[in-house]
């Protein structure tokens, strides 16, 4: 999957917004104001950064070399996923999972405005 396809997947979900709060080299995707994915535009290898459950993150990192603790993010939850090394279905599944993890953590009032 390329970064444009990853962007399309993220933006296809309900209530997602994108911005660049860290400068022109990082695009973030938010639900309810909370980041669930970021795309690093200046990386040599196309990658996304996503939030996952801590146990699942460890499991994925042990299984796939292309999933690593995220640089400059909380390494317990945030993962760098190198897009060229995973199939598109797996990348899409991880993006959707990250979205739902962050959505589920939002206050009820915020969730009600998104649906």
Structure summary:
With 115 residues, the protein is an alpha+beta fold. The protein has four helices and six strands.
Q: What would your notes on this structure say?
A:
It contains 4 helices and 6 strands. The protein has one domain (about 5-115): Aspartate Aminotransferase, domain 1, CATH 3.90.1150.30. Helix content is about 40%, strand content about 25%. The N and C termini lie far apart (about 30 Å). A 6-stranded antiparallel beta sheet has the order 1-2-3-4-6-5. The radius of gyration is 13 Å and the shape is globular. With about 120 residues, the chain is α+β, with helices and mostly antiparallel strands.
Properties at a glance:
115 residues; 6-stranded antiparallel beta sheet; alpha+beta; Aspartate Aminotransferase, domain 1; globular
What is the element layout, followed by pairings?
Layout: H1 3-11, E1 16-19, E2 26-31, E3 34-40, E4 47-51, H2 54-63, E5 67-69, E6 78-82, H3 88-105, H4 108-114
Antiparallel strand pairs: 1-2, 2-3, 3-4, 4-6, 5-6
